[in-house]
Amino acid sequence: MPSFTLRPARESESRQIRDLIHLVGINPTGLDWRRFIVAVNERDEMIGCGQLKPHGAGILELASLTVYPEHRGKGVARAIVEYLLANSPRPLYLMCASPLGAFYERFGFRRIPYEEMPHYFQRIVRLAGLLTSLARRQERLLVMKLQ
Questions:
Q1: Cystine design at 53: which of 46, 63, 68, 79 (Cβ 3.0–4.6 Å)?
Q2: Which ranges constitute the DSSP H helices of the chain?
């Protein structure tokens, strides 16, 4: 039995969402609390979050999915993804670090080549590639799609 529940974010949680996104070091743009779903513990304290972020022209991204480190491994991220996917239109895109690709493949997402990416994602991939090269990191940024 999970020790958390999911619900739409509240305006009062806007700062905490931003702080969590910064804590884990993922894309801090487009953090409108009205698009977020939060996982909360039995004391109604936020332990994780995720959103569906629009990029115009029918492009929607599963984004900002994260869980506080002390709450990982308990099914929180999986539950947030399932909740957001339940009524989201298709196609749906996401960006993630390459080690997370297998997690999203369990939900039906597939890696897509650069040529199939909407322009927004192509720009981000080019920038991420430059930064990764400069930092000499082994991780890559993946763009994935769910039909």
A1: 63
A2: 14-24, 76-86, 101-105, 119-135
